[in-house]
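I am still getting used to backbone structure tokens and would like to learn alongside you. Please make up or recall a protein chain and show it to me in full. Would you write everything just below, so we can both look at the same thing?
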Amino acid sequence: MIQLIDTHTHFDVPEYDSQRQAFAQRAYTQGVAHLLLIGYLAQHFGRMLRANDAINQLNHAPKSHLAFGLHPLYITEQSENDLLILEDYLKNHPTVAIAEIGLDGYPKDLQDAQIYAKQQRFFIEQICLAKQYQKPILLHIRKSHADVLKILKAQKYRADELGGIAHSFSGGEQEALAFVKQGFKLGITGQITNPNAKKLHRAVQAVFAKYGVQAFVIETDCPDMMPLPCQHLGQFNEPANLPFVLATLAELFNIDKQTLAEKLWQNSCQALRTDWKYDDRFYE
């Protein structure tokens, strides 16, 4: 039976509060065995803990895990104290990774020199925490791939040593190859199901041609990045939609879904430095 790891969700957000249990159990029936709750603002870390506990108390639901981090898109809402809060959570709560962190050069207000410099500083501080606490990092990158690579190199962060994922990858072919060369897996979302996402398809095919299946993991990034076949089903993406990402990649790579699922599981565990077992008794 196919089993999957959703390497990136925001399943703790309030939009799910009234239906999180049903969504989690539906994900389980679709083979989602593990999911990560990804941080973005320190003020919501407590909410992540509560959602994580609630999911893990359910029967027939994925195992939930935490990844705290300060998201670059919200840099103007973040203070120096948030970095201290992040470290406190890393010290005191089980944390799979530091996420999501990186640089965002897309919104015009974030292109301001001082604001972008603050993004860079917070990114570097979180890389330092990742190295100190031996945690993988999950990268948010928009219109800033070269700068992210430059900082990773300057900070001597190697994903082939500590783990890491370039989440919801949106760059071009050469940028994709560069991140994989640095040891990162590329996180593929429901965007891959859109045949008009030609830049993404070219990047994925280029990486597959050079590195094979080992370069990829899959994610929903819910509630965003709804797979194209699901867009008539509801307003919010959910972990149960992850098999649509698997199916599209299997078609692109000309690999059967079971074989691909097992490899993606291995890739996810490698990227997250975990040893979760692909368990044939999952549905018992």
User: Anything to note?
Assistant: The chain has ten helices and eight strands. The longest strand covers residues 97-104. The two ends are 11 Å apart (CA to CA).
